[in-house]
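Q: What residues go here?
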């Protein structure tokens, strides 16, 4: 098997798009009437203004955001490594996303509300479906201090 025979990873969420070259990117739906965002790809009407058929694809200019809320999870389903940080991030020029915050100590002394984070698209923790397909998912990582 060669690299060209390998299947592309599948997106774990509808707002993740995987290009034919294997590069993953974010794409949200944006209302042309009021600029509200949606994570759904098949909305009929805008939940904010009610406009029908008003959504267009929107690729964010940046993948940065601000930590809005988080919880350090110590108990989970069997097979899920704990602790991990479940977070809600308000994207810059985009919607709010829920995902895991990684690349930081999992204690309240290390995490602060309002901290800047990047959205990173990466392998979904080596999980595969029953046909052996891998997935790409989104994670948050703190923005490195300059």
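A:
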């Amino acid at each position: 098997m060669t690299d060209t025979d390998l299947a592309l990873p599948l997106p774990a969420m509808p707002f993740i798009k995987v290009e034919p070259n294997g590069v993953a990117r974010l794409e949200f739906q944006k209302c042309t009437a009021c600029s509200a965002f949606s994570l759904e790809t098949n909305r009929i009407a805008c939940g904010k203004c009610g406009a029908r058929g008003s959504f267009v694809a929107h690729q964010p200019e940046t993948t940065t955001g601000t930590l809005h809320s988080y919880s350090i999870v110590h108990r989970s389903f069997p097979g899920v490594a704990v602790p991990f940080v479940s977070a809600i991030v308000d994207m810059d020029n985009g919607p709010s996303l829920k995902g895991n915050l990684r690349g930081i100590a999992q204690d309240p002394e290390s995490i602060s509300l309002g901290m800047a984070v990047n959205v990173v698209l990466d392998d979904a923790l080596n999980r595969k479906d029953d046909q052996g397909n891998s997935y790409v998912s989104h994670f948050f990582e703190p923005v490195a201090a300059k």
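A: Context that may help when evaluating the design: The first strand starts at residue 10 and ends at 11. The chain is about 0% helix and 45% strand.
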